[in-house]
Design goal:
Elements: E1 3-10, E2 19-24, H1 37-40, H2 49-58, E3 65-69, H3 79-88, E4 92-97, H4 102-110, E5 116-120, H5 128-132, H6 138-150, E6 154-161, H7 168-177, E7 184-188, H8 207-217, E8 224-227
Parallel strand pairs: 2-3, 3-4, 4-5, 5-6, 6-7, 7-8
Antiparallel strand pairs: 1-2
Helix pairs in contact: 4-6, 7-8
The chain binds iron/sulfur cluster.
Length: about 230
């Protein structure tokens, strides 16, 4: 696997668990507000699998799980093998995904290789290509949503609220798209070095506005909350 980052401990990334975070290199989307530029463009300093497994061996009794994020982890052809090895060490696995590879998600679910999936739903289907600056076939997004909701494993969907790009109408349309979902989280855009410089220094949305979006989404999902700063 192409790995570009390791956070040794996180108390917040994997709900209810103490985990480490592994970042994979490469992504097929180009969300303009993305702050993982070095992962998306592949300039991050690579970390070998061996380093990761040596680390996991040492932390066996201290960590519950491994959160795999990116970039987009499902682009890594050897992701299932990597996870199999992580699970054989006794760890739980959380996967973060942009939902663009339903075939990979299906395989991971079918082989019981993931214990928690967090999928970003970036926009209503009709705005997906515009918002993610990609040529994603939106059927794939629909397929991933449906697979995850029917999987029987723990999951969440999440959307980043981005000034001037992803707002209340989008959040409501997404909530309708994932109707009946167990958990839906909204994240607020924050200032950082972003893929598109035009998004580096915007005024973050007010918490009360995001709270209002959350209230508007609540009728469609079982639980809606706000994540992060
Ligand atoms: S925010 Fe978008 S571009 Fe960045 S890693 Fe996630 S899916 Fe890829």
């Amino acid at each position: 696997m192409q790995i570009g980052g390791l956070q040794k401990t996180s108390l917040i990334d994997y709900p209810g668990k103490v985990s480490c975070i592994v970042w994979t290199i490469g992504c097929n989307f180009r969300c303009p507000w993305c702050y993982n530029k070095s992962l998306v463009f592949g300039t991050a300093e690579p970390i070998t699998e061996r380093e990761i497994f040596d680390f996991l061996e040492k932390r066996k009794n201290l960590l519950d799980g491994v959160a795999i994020t990116g970039g987009e982890p499902t682009m890594q052809p050897d992701l299932p093998d990597f996870i199999r090895r992580v699970k054989s060490m006794g760890y739980l696995v959380k996967l973060d995904t942009n939902g663009s590879n339903p075939d990979v998600i299906e395989k991971l679910i079918h082989e019981r290789l993931v214990d928690y999936i967090a999928m970003d739903v970036k926009a209503p289907l009709k705005r997906y290509q515009e918002v993610t600056k990609s040529d994603i076939e939106t059927n794939k997004i629909k397929q991933s949503i449906s697979l995850i909701m029917r999987s029987g494993i723990d999951y969440e969907f999440r959307t980043t609220v981005v000034p001037g790009l992803v707002g209340k109408d989008d959040v409501v349309a997404i909530a309708k798209l994932i109707k009946g979902a167990k958990r839906y989280y909204l994240q607020r855009y924050f200032k950082a070095e972003t893929l598109d410089d035009a998004y580096s220094n915007l005024k973050p949305p007010k918490r009360k506005d995001v709270q209002e979006m959350c209230e508007a989404a609540k009728p469609y999902v079982k639980e809606c909350g706000i994540r992060g700063i």
